[in-house]
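1st attempt posting a full record on here, be nice pls
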Amino acid sequence: MKKLALLALPAAFALALTTNAFAADGKAVYADNCAKCHGDDGKGATKMGQKLGAKDYTDAAVQAAFTDDQAFKSVKEGMKKDDKTLMKPSELSDGDIKASVTYLRTFKK
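the predicted structure (as tokens):
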């Protein structure tokens, strides 16, 4: 049992490092592709974000209203309301989209 616990500790540490690296990559992807509308802080208070009705992702209730899969789909496929394009489909890789969603989750207070 002790051996299993000793093996689990390095695995958990490696997972934590991988998750932190993934979030760090997500920060760069977000800065390059999302911040123009959603803001560096995720509040959506940019000129374009206000024009398009970007949500405040620092609000826990806003983040609770969607899953990571829903966020992924919105980025991948884009978003429309009526005939108005709110967000164009992304040309990012699936990994970059997942990383940016992971980073987006860090805005929640």
